[in-house]
Protein 1
Amino acid sequence: MTTDPPAVTVGVDFGTLSGRALVVAVEDGRELGTAVHEYTHGVVESALPGSGSRLPPDWALQVPQDWRDVLRFAVPRALAAAGVRPEQVVGIATDFTACTVLPVTSDGTPLSEVAGFAERPHAFAKLWKHHAAQPEADEIVRAAEESGQGWLGRYGGKISSEWQYAKALQVLREDPGVYAAAERWIEAADWIVWQLTGEENRNLCTAGYKGIHQDGGYPDAGFLALLHPDFVDFTAKLEFPLSQLGTAAGKLSAQAAALTGLREGTVVAVGNVDAHVTSAAARALEPGHMLAIMGTSTCHIMNSDVLAEVPGMCGVVRDGVVPGLWGYEAGQSGVGDVLAWAVRTCAPHEYVAEARRVGVSVHELLTRKAAAQPVGGHGLVALDWHSGNRSVLVDHHLSGLILGLTLDTRPEDIYRALVEATAFGTRMIIEAFEASGVPVEQFTAAGGLLKNTFLMQTYADVLGRPINLLASEQGPALGAAIHAAVAAGAYPDIRSASAAMGRIERSVYVPDPARVAAYDRLYAEYRTLHDHFGRGGNDVMHRLRALRTARES
Ligand SMILES: Nc1ncnc2c1ncn2[C@@H]1O[C@H](COP(=O)(O)OP(=O)(O)O)[C@@H](O)[C@H]1O
Ligand SMILES: O=C(CO)[C@@H](O)[C@@H](O)COP(=O)(O)O
């Protein structure tokens, strides 16, 4: 007797450096096939594609065609790898880094693709890690404090330079022509759904966490006018009915079917954020269960039935992760990125050659060399702020610090000190939640950094708590596939789909008491440096940042 081929969904995760498509069995979340497509232009940080004109410090742009190419190349390859036919696919969902935001025309065309704008930097998509709008973010916070905006507390008292308003205000100030031509200002998370269905759609997750949409609305015109007279109608570029997560945004258009190899009419789920969608994959939806998605950056996502204003959190949004609960987000803007910096700048040629000879990454080589020494053996304490501080200080013009360097310090010592510093940063965040009355009862990790077992054990020792793992290397894509199953009607809601399709391994890393005690002492040193350089003890980091100039080539 022949059995029907299994119903599947496709999750497409748009990360910082690449897009990954994953084919998942609706019945139990089995991962049947996957494919990755690296963005051709990667992260545009030093010079504009085409013209080659140099970009100032702290810029980070992306090229929308790179994202379309993920749909074109990774989706069909994932279907082929899974041995799945298009008619088995009942739904597709995407997730994106956020706040990755772009100016588009009324039909969704990116301004960077419109004649006359291809050589204007502000016409391009601003990646989440574009930190050049810090002055604008500082002004937004000042104006919100002085005018008593109630929504400021929902973001821990700070609005990030990474989010929609600071980035848009920077465009208005530096290229008003691009600002005026931007009929819509849209998250890439929604823009990619628009490419799939042919119609605009907006999700409540990015609107809430990155677009200051609280209690049913955006900041009012009176507040926006405080920032710039021409900013008064900015939210008109955002206004659109917001869709609940896990619902259908529409059906796959004929054009998108040709692009992806899927059937026209396949259900397309509402867009979502790479971190928030992963909670469903990790079965981390219940209150008090914190999920850390550890990659280029780390995002901390946790639901609660308690509404609190946690200092320095990225935001709290009703239904922001799952309907019926308050979804909290915190984060560290540089984690894998900071370690990549160490690999690029601290590893000597002989280390690179050794890694190649042994057949491991330089990350792995540095980790192996660093792992043996006792806690504190390197005599270093670092601040993990090479990409600024997202939580709890929300200041992207802070910078990294390594204290204790001597002539004996080795590259692996620096690498390990930075691993420890990122763990200390996570501990600061957990303590901020608990001090504000939002308990953190479970900690689960997901993301590309799970491959580093030493790093994960260090986190268990620094946090002093066991660490669960999301048992998938494709957490965001699995989460998106789960949302697609709900949107296609295979499950009544995200919770039941997560219970059936999600995967978690509990207490994979358990803290070692001796190392916990040793790290408590190092953490006290970290906190002293954190508060001194991050809370006004010495403003030297801002003074040094002001002296930085545009990078040559
Ligand atoms: N063995 C490793 N140990 C620690 N970090 C690593 C290792 N290998 C890669 N990385 C870091 O992982 C990050 C990429 O994370 P990943 O989750 O794959 O991508 P994304 O952040 O785009 O979702 C990079 O910043 C890279 O420096
Ligand atoms: O900020 C968020 C989510 O709010 C992330 O999309 C952003 O930090 C990028 O995440 P990755 O480190 O690229 O996975």
Note: Residues 411-435 form the longest helix (25 residues).
Protein 2
Amino acid sequence: MAQAINVNSEIGKLKSVLLHRPGAEVENITPDTMESLLFDDIPFLKIAQKEHDFFAQTLRDNGAETLYIEDLATDVFAKDTAVKDEFLTRFLTEAGYKHGRTFDSLKEYLEGLETKEMVDKIYAGVRKNELDLQRSVLSDLAGSDAANPFYLNPLPNAYFTRDPQASMGAGMTINRMTFAARQPESMITEYIMKHHERFAGTPIWRDRNHTTRIEGGDELILSKNVVAIGVSQRTSSKSIQALAKELFSNPLSTFDTVLAVEIPHNHAMMHLDTVFTMINYDQFTVFPGIFSQDGNINVFVLKQGKDGEVEINRMSDLGKALKQVLNLSELDLIETGDGDPIVAPREQWNDGSNTLAIAPGEIVTYDRNYVSIELLKQHGIKVHEILSSELARGRGGARCMSQPLWRDEI
Ligand SMILES: NC(=[NH2+])NCCC[C@H](N)C(=O)O
């Protein structure tokens, strides 16, 4: 069985990447649902798609195969109706439907679609006016359920393929997402990893069947041995400790160190990769707002201890911790917005730190963050600028919108 995933760094030449093209789900956001759907505005889909296509073409032009998760899901469900049936049953159950009239009608509706159309509908959501269902129970007539125009909510965050899963070495984590708006996304990943022949035999370091949460924006592969994970609004320390234990004990894993980095818990900095990314052997982007007045930050170095336990060493200097775990004598922390008190928060908000390295010292990032871009160039980084006016309204950048499947070794 060929190895499907190989991600042992953040900077190795990007050869294969998982994407999702924004679809109808993005225009199924309303002002009332924007916040619960984790968006800060409603993108204009046509432009968001053009921008995403430009992003994907930039990756292809620089040697990466672009795989779309909706196509992989279609492959799986078109090939095996029993798997499709099981998926729909679990998907509807997780959406809160018990077996009965609505459950049966929804399942029949989705099963009646061509498979690709069904997958698009799973992402887009199912509106109540798509089914002619008699509403005979009170919850259909009054209260929050009645007010919701959807039987199945849209999944507008799906184009941020970084988060519901995380490639790590030769394996993957399939993530228990924090908010209900995104939890269904990783079920699609689960079915692809389980049933798509391309991923047969891929080790799963942690699956989504947990109560403690973790999201891929917090999971950075700093080297073959070191993973950095954010303690953030979206990832709990319990998940990090459990994943570290798995990585240290699983014979298929090469990881022996986890760097847990505690960042502010808020929407703007929801994941570690919104404030910190690795862009070269010894160069990183960093948003200065994650440090205290005296430049400190909570960093915990987790290593294999005695009897399978995890040993934890606390540090307060990110640079020192990175030098220690990566065996670097020097390093270059490049500040978002050149550290300016106005520019830095503005460009961090629009993902100026959320860069995607496609090779050592070569990144893709949103064109709008021109102060950060200028500074990166001054530090010798090759920058590919991508369009961002509509995509950025989802509060994610180039790293958020990509899940590497294969990177060349560095
Ligand atoms: N890796 C990232 N920074 N992902 C950004 C995801 C943005 C998305 N609206 C959310 O709140 O989940």
Note: Residues 367 and 385 are 5 Å apart (CA to CA).
